[in-house]
Structure formats: structure tokens, C-alpha cells
């Protein structure tokens, strides 16, 4: 066999190896490109909420203090299979139905004692004082003990923008967390339009202070948030 004949298989092998290397390189480039595109899409979707938080908590004038506790990182609402939401008629309610709005949330058992009634009243009043922005905020009572809501408190919760929902106690406790030494029912909680819990007001919060926080947040995200459902 001539020298030329012996070198032919080696050349073919080198060509094959080179071709495979080029394919691997192209595949790696496509993978990096796909990941970059996914990251850009995520940034575009998250940018409005991030911007409103940045405006509210970083670019605020000196001396302005938020009264609620910022939850960092924010905590996403549990999925349907875990939170298991049901309305007062026992119909299943999807987690997705709550998204797209700011949510002012209270948690209490169905008997709704004095603290619960006070929170329901504050929720109603705080939504009203937002004026033209009130349709961007829904008030939500999450019943966490499986008991039916006391009928006497339901008439005030039939207006648009109001939710009374049974929620799985364990899943709820894994999402919303009270301050040290407090019960879950002691606070009002704020959930952003993505469904992320992002603020908790102290148990002894003044409703006037909660109002100030809400007004500032509505103003901070006014450029991107929708008018309401």
C-alpha cells in the first residue's frame, strides 16, 4: 500500500473528529443563546415589579420610613395543588385568579373573632381610601381552620374586589409567616400582582401608616400596573 493510501483513513478520521467538534460547539452556542433569551424574557417580565420596589425602598427621600416589614426575598404563592383554595360555596378557586392584583390579606378562622372583624374593617376602609387606585387592590380573607365563615360578617364581603377563601392550613403557614411571638392572624399581609408575598404590617400597626405605605406603593408602580380586573 502506498503512503498516500495509508494516509487516507487518517484524513477521514480527522475530518470526522473536526466535524463532531464543530457540531458540539454549535450545540453549545445554541444552548447559551437559548438560556440568554430565557433570562432576558424573565428580566422583562420582572422588571416592572423590581423597578417599583427599587423606587419605593431605594430612591425614596431621606426621612421617609415604610411602616410594613419588607419580605426579602419575596415568597411566591403556593401552587393550586398545595394551597387548595375554595370559596364559601365550596368551589375550587385557582391561584391564578388572584394574580394581576395587589392583595391585602388577612388570615383567621371561620368564627372571625374581634381581631378578625377589625382586620376585615381595615381592609375595606384601606381599599376605599386609595380612591382611583382602589381597583388595583383586592382584599382577601383566608380562612385557615376549615370552618365555614360566620354568616354575620359575610354581607360586607360581597362587593367586587373581595375574596373569602378557605385555604390549606399547612400550605398557608409555609407561605405567610408572622413576626416572632405573634399568631398568623395578628397581621395584615401584602401580596404583589405576581402572587409574591412582599410585606407584613406589625400586629399593632396604625391603619394610617398602612394607608401611607399603600399609597406610596401605588404611586411607585403606577407607570406599569394595570387599572384592575
TrEMBL record:
InterPro entries: Thioredoxin-like_sf (IPR036249). The chain crosses the membrane at residues 39-59. SUPFAM superfamilies: Thioredoxin-like (SSF52833). It comes from the Bacteria. Keywords: Membrane, Transmembrane, Transmembrane helix. This is Cytochrome C oxidase subunit I.
Amino acid at each position: 500500500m502506498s503512503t498516500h493510501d495509508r494516509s487516507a483513513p487518517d484524513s477521514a478520521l480527522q475530518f470526522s473528529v473536526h466535524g463532531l467538534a464543530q457540531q458540539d460547539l454549535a450545540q453549545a452556542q445554541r444552548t447559551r443563546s437559548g438560556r440568554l433569551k430565557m433570562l432576558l424574557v424573565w428580566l422583562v417580565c420582572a422588571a416592572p415589579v423590581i423597578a417599583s420596589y427599587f423606587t419605593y425602598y431605594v430612591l425614596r427621600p431621606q426621612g421617609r420610613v415604610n411602616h410594613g416589614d419588607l419580605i426579602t426575598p419575596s415568597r411566591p404563592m403556593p401552587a393550586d395543588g398545595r394551597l387548595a383554595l375554595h370559596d364559601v360555596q365550596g368551589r375550587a378557586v385557582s391561584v391564578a385568579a388572584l394574580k394581576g392584583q395587589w392583595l391585602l390579606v388577612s388570615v383567621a378562622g371561620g368564627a372571625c373573632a374581634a381581631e378578625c372583624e377589625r382586620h376585615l374593617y381595615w381592609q375595606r376602609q384601606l381599599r376605599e381610601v386609595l380612591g382611583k387606585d382602589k381597583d388595583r387592590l383586592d382584599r382577601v380573607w383566608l380562612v385557615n381552620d376549615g370552618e365555614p365563615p360566620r354568616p354575620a360578617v359575610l354581607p360586607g364581603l360581597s362587593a367586587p374586589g373581595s375574596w373569602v377563601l378557605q385555604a390549606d392550613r399547612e400550605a398557608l403557614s409555609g407561605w405567610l409567616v408572622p413576626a416572632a411571638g405573634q399568631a398568623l392572624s395578628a397581621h395584615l399581609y401584602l401580596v404583589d400582582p405576581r402572587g409574591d408575598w412582599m410585606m407584613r404590617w406589625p400586629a399593632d400597626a396604625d391603619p394610617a401608616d398602612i394607608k401611607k405605605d399603600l399609597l406610596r406603593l401605588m404611586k411607585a408602580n403606577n407607570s406599569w400596573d394595570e387599572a384592575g380586573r
